[in-house]
Specification:
- With 684 residues, the chain is mainly β.
């Protein structure tokens, strides 16, 4: 121990043998004894605060006096008739709490009694639990009295002493530490006196106990231990504010894991009459793990995850200046398998999974606020969207959920917070939650299912993914290929995202087919071929004639050629007629692919003009143009063949503002001194 503080006024400083530090000791009641080596040694009563080697007080010496003295031994008689069933019991009441051998210990027992024949007396100490330890068994013969007799572990042998036994002696029946190990100090401790022979009388004048009790848990350094299943009590009324979440007085407790990961729930519901606040810290003076105010009315309840080995500190306090007594229930449970972000359960598009947040821990220290606050137990799921298809994902708790739920969606790494918020929701469908958010088809999302204001329960999470169809998914948005130029390549078409058609051409049933459309009018008689570069799933390519380039499915007629059958395949070809409108339907359900359309005499091929250049490509805001001759005009088309920019230039240099265009691929047509050039440009 470190130097003892708070000792009595009359003290000396000495050095404990085998150590090199001084302690203050009370020598006013000192006695002498012979130790096992035959040397005479001083016996001192040490009082004050005992400190650990780290400087933190482990217990405080406290004296408890009996209020039942003076007490006549045997009353009007001179012998105890029944020492077993009707002994003389003189109580000392201990109102403090602690455990012998844990955070408390019995320092000494002091008695004063008169008796005309000490050898008649059997003197014992009985614990509140009923354990009995003999202090002195019929010692002293015809001698009289016990005067300021102190019993203390390590004291002198009382059988070698003599009445009135003034001094310090060891209990004859063993040590306090061994006899009462593990017992609570709270309750009535009784001095038991048995007068085993008649003819003599006496009286107990004084009886006191000195117990080193745990210090008040007014600060986290003196936090009281609790365990699973405990109900701990306290009162903040006479405390000070030594930390905690608020500025109100607080009491501190601590919990150390038992080796297994578990969710620890602390509840003041029904156990306090004042407005309470609970806060859990990762260490004394450390960071807040979680806290709660007003879970059940004005009372507080929270849950936190114990890793099985760490020690966590808990502050119980009031809201504002509120104080009062409380009792706190400690409930431990095994958490759900996906309680931690790092243990998120994988889900996929189309899944409907059942889960529960009961016995889960709170994630306020891991998950930032995302559309709604995070202050309730939650569980985690991982949704890896590697489809390559941009679109929207919907996560819904609207069916099969039995509590007031919330949902939050993040990206990032569980091991390297903070996570990045994507979307969150509370109360989309009554008290249940649903959220829809965009995906680029190449992102892993982390999903936290939690609750409102501490609510927990069972739920069903439905996962639905709706990819964005290609822009030419519907025939009305068919890409006008001859406006762009041949050979034409539509890159990385999201074919699995295509939707079903609205009608059937003549000669080909498209019922249930989901594909994309292209149209063109060839400049001369020739050929046309369309092909799928990366086949996947059900695939088909078919050509149709049409009245014009504004047709619908029922206006179309399958081109009747052997190389263009309404059957599965990855390419098709036809002979073309100048001026005839044609449509191409492509189906490829299982793969993103390039689609290529080419042939002979179809139209203007992509070409370049000598002396013309442009930069940058890709471009974010502006494309710079430069030519050897006068630039007449520049037009930019999207892949649907729609003209989105049309600018007269009449100069050899110019700029085109593309900042308003969406990201994607475009075709730029440039006229230089009457010569037409076509170029593919990228907007980023």
């Amino acid at each position: 121990p470190s130097p003892i503080v708070g000792g009595p006024a009359y003290a000396e400083t000495t050095t404990v043998p085998g150590s090199d530090f001084p302690v203050a000791v009370d020598v006013s009641n000192g006695g002498w004894a012979v130790n096992s080596f035959g040397f005479q040694s001083a016996i001192f009563t040490v009082s004050g605060q005992c400190e650990s080697t780290g400087g933190g007080v482990t217990c405080i010496s406290t004296t408890y006096d009996s209020t039942s003295v003076p007490f006549d031994i045997d009353g009007a008689g001179n012998v105890t008739a029944d020492c077993v069933n009707a002994p003389n019991l003189i109580p000392v009441t201990v109102g403090d709490s602690g455990t012998i051998g844990g955070d408390a210990n019995i320092e000494n027992v002091t008695i004063d009694l008169t008796h005309t024949f000490d050898g008649d007396l059997i003197i014992s100490l009985v614990s509140p639990n009923g354990t009995e330890l003999v202090l002195s068994n019929r010692n002293g013969g015809s001698g009289d009295n016990y005067t300021n007799t102190i019993f203390m572990d390590g004291g002198a042998d009382i059988t070698a002493g003599a009445p009135p036994y003034t001094g310090t002696f060891a209990p004859e029946g063993g040590s306090f530490a061994a006899a009462f190990d593990g017992e609570a100090i709270t309750g009535d401790w009784n001095l038991k006196i048995c007068d085993a022979a008649g003819g003599d009388t006496g009286q107990v004048l004084a009886f006191s106990m000195s117990i080193c009790i745990p210090p008040d848990n007014d600060t986290c350094e003196f936090a009281k231990e609790f365990a699973c299943g405990d109900t701990v009590t306290g009162d903040t009324s006479n405390n000070t504010n030594q930390g905690g979440f608020n500025t109100s007085p607080d009491e501190w407790f601590k919990y150390t894991g038992t080796g297994d990961v578990e969710v620890v729930t602390l509840s003041l519901c029904g156990g306090a009459t004042f407005d309470t606040v609970l806060t859990v810290y990762d260490s004394c003076g450390g960071a807040i793990i979680t806290n709660n105010d007003d879970f059940c009315g004005l009372q507080s309840q929270l849950s936190f995850l114990s890793d099985g080995t760490s020690t966590y500190y808990v502050a119980v306090e009031g809201f504002g200046a509120s104080t009062g007594p409380f009792s706190m229930d400690v409930i431990c449970a095994t958490p759900p398998a996906n309680d931690l972000c790092s243990n998120a359960i994988a889900v996929s598009c189309g899944d409907s999974v059942s889960g529960t947040t009961i016995n889960a821990s709170e994630d306020s220290g891991v998950a930032p606020e995302c559309g709604t606050t995070v202050n309730s137990p939650g569980v985690w799921y991982s949704l890896a969207d590697n489809s390559g298809l941009a679109g929207n994902i919907t996560l819904s708790l609207c069916t099969g959920t039995a509590y007031d739920s919330k949902i939050s969606v993040y990206t990032g790494d569980c091991g390297a917070p903070p996570l990045t918020c994507v979307a969150g929701n509370d109360d989309s469908c009554g008290l249940q939650s649903e959220v829809t958010f965009p995906t680029n088809g190449n992102t892993t999302f982390l999903v936290l299912v939690h609750g409102f204001n501490g609510a927990t329960g069972d739920f069903v999470l439905d996962v639905s993914c709706l990819p964005t169809p290609p822009p030419n998914d519907m025939i009305a948005n068919s890409i006008d290929v001859d406006e762009i130029g041949f050979p034409y390549t539509d890159p990385s078409v999201a074919m699995p995202a295509a939707t079903t058609e609205n009608g059937n051409p003549s000669g080909c049933d498209l019922t249930g087919a989901n594909g994309v459309w292209y149209n063109f009018v060839p400049e001369g008689d020739g050929t046309a071929i369309a092909s799928i570069t990366t086949p996947g799933g059900a695939s088909s390519v078919t050509f149709y004639t049409a009245p014009d380039e504004s047709s619908v499915e029922t206006d179309l007629v399958l081109v009747p050629q052997n190389t263009n059958q309404c059957v599965p395949g990855t390419s098709s070809s036809i002979n073309t007629v100048a001026g005839q409108a044609y449509y191409v339907f492509v189906l490829n359900t299982g793969s993103i692919t390039d689609i290529v359309i080419d042939g002979t005499n179809l139209g203007t091929s992509e070409n370049s003009i000598v002396g013309f250049s442009f930069y940058p490509n890709p471009s974010t805001n502006t494309i710079n143009l430069k030519a050897a001759d006068t630039i007449d005009y520049v037009s930019i088309y999207n892949l649907l063949g729609q003209r989105v920019i049309d600018t007269r230039v009449e100069a050899t240099t110019s700029q085109v503002d593309v900042s308003a265009l969406s990201v994607g691929t475009y075709i730029m047509k440039v006229s230089v001194n009457g010569q037409i050039g076509t170029y593919k440009v990228l907007k980023k």
